[in-house]
Specification:
- The protein is of the alpha+beta class.
- Helices cover 35% and strands 36% of the residues.
- It has three helices and nine strands.
- The strands form two sheets. Strands 6-5-4-1-9-8-7 form a seven-stranded antiparallel sheet. A two-stranded antiparallel ribbon has the order 2-3.
- Strand 8 and strand 9 form a beta hairpin.
- Helix 1 packs antiparallel against helix 3 and helix 2 packs across helix 3.
- The longest helix is centred in the N-terminal third of the chain and has 43 residues.
Length: 228
């Protein structure tokens, strides 16, 4: 193998290894979340829940996960006044004038956006999502849930429910947000289909995932032909 060919092979191998490491990391992250989710939902089916004496649970309600988050709600930033000043002066006595000013402009309403309200405890159950903090508290019942949105990083969520006009949501750390996104989807599935069906699907997903584990594939260089 010549110098140039050898360089190309090494560069391709380095590129393939980089892709493999990225894909393996993503696979492991997803697999770990599913494994933890299986433990949580299997435990819930047996009656095992996170220790929480502060929540008055509804009939058949099971606490699946407890974490920390920031509660935010739709609102407006403060309004502002924009425009320019004009005026004129009135002579009082020799050398002294009194200036009368005026301000012409308009009030510009604040921007409508999600505004952080409080930081506190988040509880995910098989029936609802709950936030409790020193200032605010909120709940999102799955029965009244109309819409769910998330940012690409999956650490900020907005929920729309039928019993509130304003949308509101929760913000998490990157690690908790990724985990919450999966658990929340599974909690909604549990609400619709029950715990046994959810556990069955998690097991099926884990089994299928094993066959999708990334493998490092390196290009094999062709031996140089020797002409005789």
């Amino acid at each position: 193998m010549g110098f140039i060919e050898n360089f190309k092979v090494k560069r391709a191998a380095k590129r393939a290894k980089k892709v493999y490491e990225f894909e393996l990391n993503e696979w492991e992250k997803e697999n770990n979340v599913l494994t933890k989710a299986l433990d949580i939902f299997t435990g819930a089916a047996k009656g095992d829940e996170p220790n929480d004496n502060s929540l008055v649970q509804k009939k058949g309600e099971l606490v699946l996960w407890v974490g920390n988050g920031i509660y935010h709600e739709a609102g407006r930033t403060p309004s502002r006044y924009v425009g320019g000043s004009t005026g004129f002066s009135i002579p009082i006595v020799a050398g002294i004038r009194f200036r009368v000013g005026s301000f012409k402009g308009q009030v510009v309403p604040g921007e409508e956006m999600q505004i952080d309200k409080d930081s506190g405890m988040v509880k995910l159950t098989n029936q609802r999502l709950i936030f409790t903090g020193p200032i605010s508290s909120a709940e999102w019942s799955y029965a009244k849930l109309l819409s769910t949105f998330s940012n690409p990083e999956r650490n900020d969520f907005i929920f729309g429910v039928s019993n509130r006009k304003k949308s509101s949501g929760l913000k998490f750390s990157n690690e908790d947000g990724y985990f919450f996104a999966h658990l929340f989807a599974l909690a909604l599935y549990t609400y619709e289909n029950g715990l046994p069906e959810t556990i069955k699907n998690i097991k099926s997903e884990l089994k299928e995932s094993e066959g999708k584990k990334p493998k490092l594939v390196l290009a094999v260089s062709k031996p140089k032909e020797i002409k005789g």
